[in-house]
Amino acid sequence: MCKDYVYDKDIEQIAKEEQGEALKLQASTSTEVSHQQCSGPGLGEKYPTWETTKPELELLGHPRRRRIASSFTIGLRGLINLGNTCFMNCIVQALTHTPILRDFFLSDRHSCEMPSPELCLVCEMSSLFRELYSGNPSPHVPYKLLHLVWIHARHLAGYRQQDAHEFLIAALDVLHRHCKGDDVGKAANNPNHCNCIIDQIFTGGLHTDVTCQACHGVSTTIDPCWDISLDLPGSCTSFWPMSPGRESSVNGESHIPGITTLTDCLRRFTRPEHLGSSAKIKCGSCQSYQESTKQLTMNKLPVVACFHFKRFEHSAKQRRKITTYISFPLELDMTPFMASSKESRMNGQLQLPTSSGNDENKYSLFAVVNHQGTLESGHYTSFIRHHKDQWFKCDDAVITKASIKDVLDSEGYLLFYHKQVLEHESEKVKEMNTQAY
Amino acid sequence: MKMEEMSLSGLDNSKLEAIAQEIYADLVEDSCLGFCFEVHRAVKCGYFFLDDTDPDSMKDFEIVDQPGLDIFGQVFNQWKSKECVCPNCSRSIAASRFAPHLEKCLGMGRNSSRIANRRIANSNNMNKSESDQEDNDDINDNDWSYGSEKKAKKRKSDKLWYLPFQNPNSPRRSKSLKHKNGELSNSDPFKYNNSTGISYETLGPEELRSLLTTLIFLFQQCGVISEHTKKMCTRSLRCPQHTDEQRRTVRIYFLGPSAVLPEVESSLDNDSFDMTDSQALISRLQWDGSSDLSPSDSGSSKTSENQGWGLGTNSSESRKTKKKKSHLSLVGTASSLGSNKKKKPKPPAPPTPSIYDDIN
């Protein structure tokens, strides 16, 4: 007898089960929960620490074990340009570094229900994630992705330079259509409210109010949107006059007189716009054609917000690229642009977010797609955020480290922001959303 | 030690210290024991060293941040040799050229519809026979090749197409032709050293079919054989790249000295010689059996053309020969149709049935 302590698996199993039973009794009889057994309110379950089983030990006991550190290249990989496909490469880099999307695909949550899986774009995305997170230093050749996109989005097919934003929308659309197997339960009853991962992440609600000038009746529509396209100063559409100091520093953007910020663009986007006498709308309540005011705000914020600067101008007069530098922040609060903030907007003020305000509308920048060159010919590159606060420049097959300053000084064409706090949707909110759509 | 029986004031320092020590030991033990048991359990169950990592292999994945190198420590621009397999045609393509290749492979390019139409025309003529004809525009385009299911290897039909012009070592070519009009064998407008022309005794039906297609083309297309590719020009009869003289030479080569180049002015008439006619000709060619064909039925002029072809002209020759002759006479008919067209519309139909009457 060595007098050592012995751990017997079977006895422990019995002990665990008994403890679980005891806890259930305890939870139902008292509100006091013991410190060691952390069970949630209303739950009688115990969440034990995970201990490895023997087969797991064998798998994990590899001698050359590595733990991913923040200095690791894992998760980064170049993409070969297949012939003017830099626009596609940038969007792929942005999508594969979207945290919530990455979590979805790396935990293999897609179950394919397409009649032929080799034509499923979601399966190909899944494979793409595996390739890009493999740690392989040699760049990946995304030829299958190109082929599938050309098959499913015919308007994009063809060997020519294309627009990254257009590609993004088309790709999201095809992914959304192919996500049939992943419906997460409840919303399956409602055909209007798709619950696929793409919609969960990217779909926001654009709230449009049209106010009749005569009777002040407001008609509201809410449209789903995957991105927000912003007009820029210098375009043929008139821009909001630059506001004095204070309001532009809402989001911590460094306010330099003369520099337009993302917040400025958003303010312009959500301003009440007086529709002229040439665009009279028939008012539902007073049944007459009246001049009206239109205002756009955000009804529902998506988990990932994509902002698109309309740099490519195709007007009757000219076709050109607007290269005005727009300053954008690392952290963005969308509260002032919500539908609920309209009251204060009417008064001409921009509601400043309070420091103690809720975090649910706060976003962090994680990807920037840039375009260099002219409207006819140019090159796309992207900056992506990895390992929480490191930035990398992705130029097709070449990935290099970048500084935050590089990112924020870049021109900016597509900006990807990710919500900082993801909360569970309560059932009531879900119901409201389905009605709105 | 029964604490309750003693009063602290009565103790000396050493005893006090002993008590304090014991209390201290108890406290430490209490706080450590839980941890000790955890470690003991971890060691016993084998997962204590699970957190360990291998520092050497960790270094392989460190991000590199030096000018001229990417994060993996690789030099820029070394990826020119990357290749991939086209999902449509299963060929191996250089990665940086994949997009233009796929565009043509899927039939979406600038020229693709034109090429496709030609292909359809070809395949109508040749039925199942495979044709790899390429437009002159695409000669420089190495990526493009037709045939989605087929592997990229030279097929027999390629050789068939080039049969009269290439492959000087082909056994067929070593058989020289008997020319009544001797100069034809010597005149070699295409600069081939070996004997020109074709020995028809050894041609199979497929080869004849391809030949016929050639001939059909001569009615509608330029037909001049390019020096570089040894292929016939598929542009229109007014193709600016070649002269009428060249076109005439080609036709003489194929059709004999009496062949006439369809005149440009009457190209409209030529258009009326539409594909249905040629298809009728081809379909009738499908017959396998041979039957006697009297050369005289083809008309005297055609007989001389037959002779121009260099085939044995004696009607007493073997069946096989006659079979070939009948093909030729069809060809002769075709050419005569061409020449008829030149004069002014004499409907091509009448001569044709007469021949077929004999055949059938």
UniProtKB/TrEMBL annotation, chain A:
Keywords: Hydrolase, Protease, Thiol protease, Ubl conjugation pathway. Its EC number is 3.4.19.12. CDD domains: Peptidase_C19D. The keyword Amino-acid biosynthesis does not apply. Belongs to the peptidase C19 family. This is Ubiquitin carboxyl-terminal hydrolase. InterPro entries: Papain-like_cys_pep_sf, Peptidase_C19_UCH, Ub_carboxyl-term_hydrolase, USP, USP_CS. It catalyses: Thiol-dependent hydrolysis of ester, thioester, amide, peptide and isopeptide bonds formed by the C-terminal Gly of ubiquitin (a 76-residue protein attached to proteins as an intracellular targeting signal).
Automatic annotation (TrEMBL), chain B:
It is found in: Nucleus. One of its GO terms (cellular component) is SAGA complex. A zinc finger (SGF11-type) spans 84-105. Keywords: Activator, Chromatin regulator, Metal-binding, Nucleus, Transcription, Transcription regulation, Zinc, Zinc-finger. Pfam families: SCA7, Sgf11. Its main location: nucleus. GO terms for molecular function: transcription coactivator activity; zinc ion binding. Residues 209-276 form the SCA7 domain. Residues 116-189, 288-360 are annotated as: Disordered. Residues 116-125, 288-301 have a biased composition (Low complexity). Residues 132-141 have a biased composition (Acidic residues). InterPro entries: SAGA_su_Sgf11 (IPR013246), SCA7_dom (IPR013243), SGF11 (IPR051078). GO terms for biological process: chromatin organization; regulation of transcription by RNA polymerase II. Component of the transcription regulatory histone acetylation (HAT) complex SAGA, a multiprotein complex that activates transcription by remodeling chromatin and mediating histone acetylation and deubiquitination. Within the SAGA complex, participates in a subcomplex that specifically deubiquitinates both histones H2A and H2B. The SAGA complex is recruited to specific gene promoters by activators such as MYC, where it is required for transcription. Required for nuclear receptor-mediated transactivation. Within the complex, it is required to recruit USP22 and ENY2 into the SAGA complex. Component of some SAGA transcription coactivator-HAT complexes, at least composed of ATXN7, ATXN7L3, ENY2, GCN5L2, SUPT3H, TAF10, TRRAP and USP22. Within the SAGA complex, ENY2, ATXN7, ATXN7L3, and USP22 form an additional subcomplex of SAGA called the DUB module (deubiquitination module). Interacts directly with ENY2 and USP22. PANTHER family: ATAXIN-7-LIKE PROTEIN 3. The long N-terminal helix forms part of the 'assembly lobe' of the SAGA deubiquitination module. Belongs to the SGF11 family. This is Ataxin-7-like protein 3. It comes from Tupaia chinensis (Chinese tree shrew).
